[in-house]
Amino acid sequence: MRVLGVDPGLTRCGVGVVEGVAGRPLTMRGVGVVRTPADAELGLRLVAIEQGIEQWLDEHEPEFVAVERVFSQHNVRTVMGTAQASAVAMLCAARRGIPVALHTPSEVKAAVTGSGRADKAQVGAMVTRLLRLDAPPRPADAADALALAICHIWRAPAQNRLQQAVAQNRLQQAVAQNRLQQAAAQNRLPQAAAQNQVQQAAAPHASKPASPHVSKGRTA
């Protein structure tokens, strides 16, 4: 499995490609940062991020794209920029038909370090160890992108099993619902037949004309 991890950001958008399967040593295929100038127009910055991610998709041809899920922060301007960069990454992947997975920072930290409260230094150190690198990737955005890819590779089997279980449960519910509807329909048939017989039996009596009543008068 080859995964492109994207740590979204307007000024620095971390990207990293990791290949491997859960339970076996992983290999880094590439890591870097897509940068945009802070004083540039927003639209142009988003275009630059799109072009940068497209180059990574062309070069590495990942099977999945893992993007950090944006969560609420006190700095609204920062979270808006992160969300916009995240949307660009998802758009680039969706346009190529590449599945996109979103992982929260806590999920990534827990997957890589074992603690959802690990700091960036701990994440970088574990990424270096897991990928057998000489030194932690710099800047931290690049290390975070690799951590996202690692997280997805390790979590994907469990997520697939969960999705399959949910799909199987929905199928069973649909089959059960269909059987109930068929049983109800079969139960209505005898009722309708019995009601029809009652109506047919009552029909001759309803259509028979009533006998005229003749009153006899008294003779004086």
Short structural summary:
The chain has 220 residues and is α/β, with parallel strands linked by helices.
Any overview of this molecule?
The chain is of the alpha/beta class. 58% of the residues lie in helices and 15% in strands. It is built from 5 helices and 5 strands. A 5-stranded mixed β-sheet has the order 3-2-1-4-5. Helix 1 (42-60) packs across helix 2, helix 3 crosses helix 5 and helix 4 packs across helix 5 (140-207). The longest helix has 68 residues, at 140-207. The chain is elongated, with a radius of gyration of 34 Å.
Offer a few descriptive terms:
220 residues, elongated, 5 helices, 5-stranded mixed sheet, alpha/beta, single chain
List the helices and strands and how they pair.
Elements: E1 2-7, E2 12-19, E3 27-35, H1 42-60, E4 64-68, H2 76-95, E5 100-103, H3 105-113, H4 120-130, H5 140-207
As an assembly, this protein is: single chain
Strand content: 5-15%
Class of secondary structure makeup: alpha/beta
* Low-confidence blocks of residues: none
The percent range for helix content is: 55-70%
Largest sheet, strands/sense/barrel:
5 strands, mixed
How much is the average pLDDT?
Answer: 87
Task: Give the end-to-end Cα distance, rounded to a whole number of Å.
Answer: 118 Å
What is the number of beta strands?
5
The number of helical segments is 5
- General form: elongated
Cα Rg: 34 Å
Q: What pattern of helices and strands is seen along the backbone?
A: EEEHEHEHHH
Strand order of the largest sheet: 3-2-1-4-5
